[in-house]
Amino acid sequence: MAPSTQQHLKQQKTNQTTSKNIPIVLTIAGSDSGGGAGIQADIKAMSATGSFACSVITAITSQNTLGVSAIFPIPLDHVASQLDAVFTDLNVAAVKIGMLADVSIIKVVAAKLRQYQPQHVVIDPVMVATSGDLLLKHSAISALKETLLPLADIVTPNLPEAAALTNRAVPQSEVEMNDMMADLRALGAKAVLLKGGHLETDENSNDLLITQDGFELLSAKRLFTKNTHGTGCTLSSAIASYLAQGNSLQQSVQLGKQYITGAIAHADELDIGQGHGPVHHFFAGHQDVR
């Protein structure tokens, strides 16, 4: 049984007072000017769960709680130079990958991962907008599947993203989630966390941790709040953070699920923006996560 997130965060504080070897986690993603998702959410989640966060920015978005008004992709050579700068100096224990935007960036990131071979790779395939519109062209989805997903320890799609990856309809039930498992295994990652948050009529929020030889159901009470901006970024970053600290994949996913559940449960304590606000990354208290 994995320890609770609260217990884990307290133990991290104790460990950090006796050791300077705080694990380093790299996030490769887009910037959210509103601070609720993307690079900003990743850094908060990694910090809150006890790791040191560094970043490679792939795009700059003009964004707030009401939506995205503009996207500026970072030039390809600068994405590559950021990756080289981080990997040639910092001892990166785990990498979390979010928004990559196009085929060229996907190929550069995949090449750098093969070059530097970090121990753990977590991919949150940011592919589908809340509206249901694809954020990646079909050519980019193909590149993601062919060059990047096979390098991952775990991929964390929500239901629309899993549908886009497998060319299937978006699941409308847990039975249909189960029916996707073979196709998700075929993507080549060591594991897939299929997130069931979109099944809003279900009493619980159930996720499937799918490995090459089995699966596990992870369940938490469904929490009703409009403040869920950045949940996917936050969960995948927490999983990467826990992997960097030496936890097994199963433990990291369990701890990540507990962390995001707590962050959502405390989201309404914040009053950020007029739309869909962020989750509360530091719900455990700043004194526990320094």
Structural class: alpha/beta
CATH homologous group name = Ribokinase
Average pLDDT level: 88
Spans of 5+ residues with little confidence (pLDDT < 50)? 14-19, 286-290
What do these coordinates show?
- This protein has 10 helices and 9 strands.
- A 9-stranded mixed β-sheet has the order 3-2-1-4-5-6-7-8-9.
- 49% of the residues are buried.
- It is an alpha/beta fold and 290 residues long.
- It starts with a helix and ends in a 25-residue tail after the last helix.
- Helix content is 39%, strand content 21%.
- The radius of gyration is 18 Å and the shape is globular.
- It has one domain: Ribokinase (UDP-N-acetylmuramoyl-L-alanine:D-glutamate ligase).
- The model is unreliable at 14-19 and 286-290 (pLDDT under 50).
Q: Summary?
A:
The chain has 290 residues and is of the alpha/beta class.
Keywords:
alpha/beta, disordered C terminus, transferase, 10 helices, 9 strands, 290 residues, 39% helix, globular, 9-stranded mixed β-sheet, hydroxymethylpyrimidine kinase activity, PM/HMP-P_kinase-1, 21% strand, UDP-N-acetylmuramoyl-L-alanine:D-glutamate ligase, single chain
